[in-house]
Amino acid sequence: MKIDINKIKTTPSDLGFNFCVFGKPSDEIINWCKYWDLKMEDSGKYTNIILNDDTKISDMFNQPEKYDYIDGFSPNLNKHLHVGHFSNLVLANAFQKLGVGNKFIAIFGDTLEGAVQKDDALKSYFEYCKNFNYNVDEMFFASEMKLQDESFLKEGEGTYEGSKIFDLGDEKLVGVKSTGSTSYFYQDVALASKLNASTLYLTGVEQDNHFKSLKKLFPTTNHVGLGLVQLDGKKMSSSEGNVIYMTDFINKFITII
Description:
- The chain has 257 residues and is of the alpha/beta class.
- The protein is built from six helices and 14 strands.
- The strands form four sheets. Strands 7-6-5-11-12 form a five-stranded parallel sheet, sandwiched between helices.
- The termini are far apart.
């Protein structure tokens, strides 16, 4: 018999017992303890659960299904990376070490020109990944994203005339602009269609609505919104000079160490 580990609480090792539940245990917990021959002790507001020395914890809990893909560290290739990007790398690396996904991917924004050449940006990206032992199994580029199934798109009307849109019922999103260029949403739809598998995206929390829209088309996609790294109370912006670059940040700590 197995249960979801979130239905119980872990306790500090120095307390002499291993798990507990708040209040009286449910029938499911009681039956689970009986199945594994675990002792329960009343402790005021809590019920303590004591493991046997020979109990194999990995056999006692349901194992969550891994995502087929995780997109954790996919910066744009037209600018220098800053501390906000470094935060993404650290969190993506943590997810990777926890074994949450089978494959880790990156989809690079490469449709805009900027202060950095694409090849130079990729070189820096690979160096960061290598230095922090973060592995990327597959890479994609926004400029190469092509939607194979055009039935997703409809001709825009009214204010959308001249463009092609995704009609999601309660909202309409531009996929192909009147200029012929594709939108960020189009690129993610094309990638989700290509992968056709459960995918977790780790990006800024400000993109949460974007991925809620994507989930309407691909229910097996999910999003974890990451907190925004700010400087002087404002979002970091290379163009405005309100930024701490990733290289400077890392080098500073290397010097201190």
